[in-house]
Amino acid sequence: MNKINVEKCAGILKEKDNILILMHAHPDGDTLGCGFGLCSALLMMGKKARAICADEIPKKFAYLYENIDMPDFEEEYIVSVDVAAETLLGSLADKYAGRINLCIDHHASNTIKADYTLLNADAAAACEIILKVVKALRIRVDKYMANCLYTGLTTDTGCFRYASATSNTYRAAAQLIDYGAENGIINRAMFETKTKSYSALERLAIEGMRFYNNERVCVIKITQEMYNQTGSNETETEAIPPLTRQTEGVEVGITVFEKPDGSCKCSLRTFESVDASKLAGCFGGGGHKQAAACRLESGVEETTRLLVEKSKEFLK
Amino acid sequence: MNKINVEKCAGILKEKDNILILMHAHPDGDTLGCGFGLCSALLMMGKKARAICADEIPKKFAYLYENIDMPDFEEEYIVSVDVAAETLLGSLADKYAGRINLCIDHHASNTIKADYTLLNADAAAACEIILKVVKALRIRVDKYMANCLYTGLTTDTGCFRYASATSNTYRAAAQLIDYGAENGIINRAMFETKTKSYSALERLAIEGMRFYNNERVCVIKITQEMYNQTGSNETETEAIPPLTRQTEGVEVGITVFEKPDGSCKCSLRTFESVDASKLAGCFGGGGHKQAAACRLESGVEETTRLLVEKSKEFLK
Lengths: 316, 316
Prior knowledge:
- The structure is a homodimer.
- By secondary structure, chain A is α/β, with parallel strands linked by helices.
- In chain A, 40% of the residues lie in helices and 16% in strands.
- Chain A contains 13 helices and eleven strands.
- The longest helix of chain A has 16 residues, at 29-44.
- The model of chain A has no long low-confidence stretch (mean pLDDT 94).
C-alpha cells in the first residue's frame, strides 16, 4: 500500500482525467457524499468524472443524485471512496477489483491494493478527508458540494452523536455550513423522516422486541412477512439495529433479518463490555467493536437462539 | 431592558461576589449547563457562587450536579440563565421575581426586567453565550465546565440536528471537545439511553399511535394507566412528542398527556405548514412555531377529538 497525504492526493487528481469514482454497495450517506462531492469538484475543474455504485441509491438521497449531471466517458483513472475492501463494491467488484488506482478511505481495516492510498482512520467520516482534498485542489466549495460532504459527516456520526466525532469533525461541519450546507434540512431527511412503510415496520419491530439474559440481550426480528405486511423492504432498515441497544442495561443488541431464501443476516450492536466483531466472528462475520454483522443459513428462530446463546458466553 | 455585550457582562461579573444563579423550572440540559458551567467558572475565580432551580434535576444529569461543590452564602447578586420569563422560575419566582440583576439568555421573547441583559437570540443554546462569557473572563475551561456547556449545546439542538445549530454552534462544540468535553458519553446519556420504564412506555405509546385526516395528523396518548403499567412517569417523557412528527406526511403531531386529575397537557409538533403556537393558542396555550403546548380540562378522548378537529382547520 503506497500511502499518500492530502496534498499528494490533490496533486495526482490534478494530473488525471476521465475519472471514475467507485462508491460501496448498499450505499450510505458517507460513500455517496464522498462520491458526488468529489465528482462535482472534478467537474468544476473541467474534468470528466462520474460516481457509481452497485446498488440502487435510497430515495432519501435524491437531493444528492438528482442535482449532479455526470457525463459518459471511457474511464482512465479509478478512485474508490469510503470502500474498505473490494468485495464491498458488490456487483462492481467483478469489473473493478484489482483496477483501483487511488483509494480514499477512513477504515483502519482497509485492504484495497491501489496504486495510491489516502487513509485517515481518525476521520469520523470519509467526507472529512474529501473536504481536505477539495480544499487542497483549491476548489471553491459550493452549496451542492457542501451538502454532499455534510451528509457524510452527519450520517457516519449518527448526527454528531458518536464518540467518533472529533473536534475536527465539528469544525469540518462548521466550514460546510458556512459554505451553504443545509444542515437542518439534511438532518431532518436523514434522521427525522420515516416513510409510512418504515414507520409501520418499526412499530412491528418494537412490538416484537424481546429481552434475554436478565435483559442484557435485546433481539429484534425482521421477517419477510413483516415486509409484506407493511410494504417496507430491506433498503430502509438501517435505523432498526440501533433500537436494540437503547434500553438501559442492554449490552448486546441483535437484529435478525430474514432473507427471501429463509437464511438470516444479523446486525449486532454492543457497548464496551462486548466486542461485537468477535461475536460476529463466531459466525464467520466481522465489523467494528461496537457494530458488526454476520450471516447464518439457519432460519429466524434458530438463528436467534444461536446468537442469544453465544452472547451469553461474552457476558461475564 | 439594559442590553449589554459579552465583554460588559464579564466586566460586571468580575466586580461581584456571592452570586446566586437561577436556572429555570423543569430544568433541561441548557439551563443546567449554563448554571453549573458559569458557577464553576466563578468558583474558579475565587468567588462564592451557587446555581439553583425550583424542581428536582433529572438523574441523567447526575454528571453535572454531582461534580460541583457549591458553598452556602447570603446572596448579593442574582443572575438568571436560559430563563425567558420570571414565571419560568417556577416556585422560585415568589422569592426572586423582580430581583434579577443580570439576565443571560437566548430566547428572543425574553421578558425579564433585570439591571442588565445579555441576550443573543441567534445562539442555538444559552451555553453558547456562557462559553463566550467564560472566555471573556479569561478562565481556563476545564473538563467539567466543557461537559456542562457541551450538554447545553447538544440538548438544545437535538444533538446538532436542528436548523437552529449554526456554524458558530458547531465551532463552540469543537472548542469544548478540545477542552475535554466527553461528547460521546454525554450524547449517549442524553439521546441513546432509555430507562427500562421509559422503554416500556414508549413501546405502548408507539403501539397506540393513531393517524387522522389522511395521516396528516398523528396522535399519541399517554395515560395514567400507562404510567402505572410501565413504572414510568411524566418526568421522563420529553422524547415522546417528537415521535408524532416522524412519519412521512404527518404535518401535525399531538401528544396528549393525562394528568392525575384527569385533565390533559398537550404537546404539539408541526412542520412549516402549521404554526403550532397558533394551534395551541386556540386552547389558551403557546410556544414556538413548530413546538407548542396547551392544557385542557377535558379527558383524554375528548381532548384528542378537540385537537384533531382544530388541526383540520389549520391544514389546507
